[in-house]
TrEMBL record, chain A:
UniProt GO BP: DNA strand invasion; double-strand break repair via homologous recombination
Domain RecA family profile: 38-263
A GO term, aspect molecular function: four-way junction DNA binding
Residues annotated as signal peptide: none
Organism: Halocaridina rubra
Protein name: RecA family profile 1 domain-containing protein
Gene3D superfamilies the UniProt entry points to: P-loop containing nucleotide triphosphate hydrolases (3.40.50.300)
A GO cellular component annotation in the UniProt record: centrosome
From TrEMBL, chain B:
Keyword field contains Nucleus: yes
Residues annotated as domain RecA family profile: 77-255
Protein name in UniProt: DNA repair protein rad51d
Gene: RAD51D
Originating species: Halocaridina rubra (Hawaiian red shrimp)
Gene Ontology MF, one: ATP-dependent DNA damage sensor activity
The organism's place on the tree of life at top rank: Eukaryota
Any one GO biological process: double-strand break repair via homologous recombination
Compartments, as annotated in UniProt: Nucleus
Amino acid sequence: MESSNHQIITVSSSNAGAQWSAPKKKIIESESGLSLLARLETRPSLLGIDSYFLPKGPQLGDVIELSGKPGCGKSAFCLHLMASALLPKHWKGVHIGGCESGVIFVDTDCHFSILQLENVMQKKASNILRKSKSALKGKCVSGNEQELISNHESVKSFLQSGSQCIKGELTKLTKQCLKKFCYLRCTDSTQFAVTLLSINELLPAKKDVSLVIIDSISAFYWYDFSYRSDSWFKLKQYYNNIYEVFISYIRKYKVTLVATRQSLFRKKSKEDNYNKQMNPIEEEETGESVNDFEYMGKEWAKAVTHRVKFSFNESQVLGIELKKTDKPETKDNRKSLIKNTHSELSSKYTLDDRCVYCVDIADNERRTKLNFTIHEEGIRWQI
Amino acid sequence: MRLQVGLCPALTEDVMSKLKTAGVNNVISFMQKDIETLAMEASISYKDLQSIRNIIVANYAAFPLEGDLMLSEAVRSTVIISTGISSLDKLLGGGLMAGEIMELCGGWGVGKTSLCVQLALHCATKLGHRVLYIDPTGGVSTNRLEPHLDNSIELQESALPLSYFKVVTPDDVWGLFEVLNTMSAPSIPSTGPSSSSSKKGDEIKLVVVDSLPVLLTPVQAGSQRHGNGIVNQVACTLKQIASERQVAVVVVNNVVSATYDSAVNSEHHLSLKWKAALGRFWEHVPNTRLFMERVWNPDKTAKRPLSSLSDNTALMSLDVNITIWKSSRLKPASSLVSIISN
């Protein structure tokens, strides 16, 4: 298992190297043997960070862009990825399935809370512990007990050590994992630009980091537009210059970049509006970029290897609501639902019928659509 | 940010002019260059360039924080400010979280200002935190404050905590920046003799901006670019204050009709009619967005006298339904909340 993993990594990294074209007029960079070794030293693989989201794993050097409207799960998804990346592969004989990697998180939206990340990690780990407990008792329905538990003896003795002790160990585990988490908060545009452009000093120092997350790259868009440039063209040039250098660092040090991009524009076509109102679900399927276009400049657009679009899966939410109220789906009924009394409104959310979010993943080869719900332990795919 | 002579010893007049001829005149364009290439192009010593770069990174780049240290700091210092309304606290998972921006949006007259005054006064008088109430409309009057104070405490008792409740009325968005900048400056100009000693209670813990559209709509009416640029700057300033000083920020926003916007249909499945004002960029900014709407209950009148206060006829309780539209930590839910209004 281990050796085959390794095989895949080496192939993938050479692929990523082939895709990267060197900047045009560049004097060939000299590099000492020591720094070359340091650079090429394998960082932890992110393979299996989320096997539903990316079955072939993000390869080192990939750039994944998460875009979507406000409140459709981008930041929650980032938390989920961070937690999976930080957690260990095996712990106390249980297969946790993390990547044991370090994470650099560039926060421009300030929607991040370290307590939330800790919580997600603890919940993830304790969920798996619970599963392995029932697997030990033979209650496991699927035959994946072998995968879940790698060392029966240590799991048994750990589970018997009492809930207080387990809790303490979980806290210790998350604390240990968070040591590899590096947080950079940028509150103005210059700080953000300089931080991105100086990532080449941080990456060689942190050898276990294989995931860089930016939430979000468009936080200073309008500021840059009105204070740094006097035209669309100049703004794009400004971004192109920054991202050309930044992406070359990402490729050079072979880390995976995940960045969220807010959708700030909508298409101003009247026909689209009309279609959308008539049949919102169909529109979702046909629209390649109905609500959005690449406004971060061509260097960024070119660099992105996986485009992930987030949206609400409204049909599913309504489906659940309607089942409860036993009303056919019409606009008037939806409106009357809103005006309903408090008791009904709150009852809609008391059970496990959470909002269903939808992601649309497009990379070079394929395009997939997945649904997920947000839980305390991160996100859960609906299969 | 311009490169200036004296930023570091290596950056002399001579080096500056050489850099200028090489097309480097600000911090960002310097950072974009590969030092080795630049050293050859502009014939400046590699060592000097390296030291200039180090200084720039130290001055302008974000400081890397380690996760486990952040966690212990957060555990030590995170404050959750109760709103004083149990149903709202429950909806918000305990109350207002310091470091977050919460937006209250709703139509006219649903009680946004009443709710803000109520929670700000609760924070100042009951919890003893300093509150900065930014009130460009001049909506906070003694009439507004009175019912809450009578309700909670005796006047003599409230005299001191009321000094924790500070109201400022900026005229325009520049006034807002001034207020926020003096707040974010390391030394706040002392307002009284007691604030010279830095006690725990001296830090402002809650900032209320009621309401933001009053300040921002005038600048948005002009060119889209500049309007949004200013909105972006307001967002940055508020986020900076919230995260760096661990302050809870409450922002009041209006709603606009969403029927003509194609994008909104799938966005807010509960309320298809409305969306938050101030444009698409702002929609992403708050950590949590709450939507308020009046509840018109057929069996109860919407305004009913508070049973506990029999003599005061001016006091009314107002039932509103509050829905979470967007949040980075809470799941979408809604709850009925009664607020005191007059």
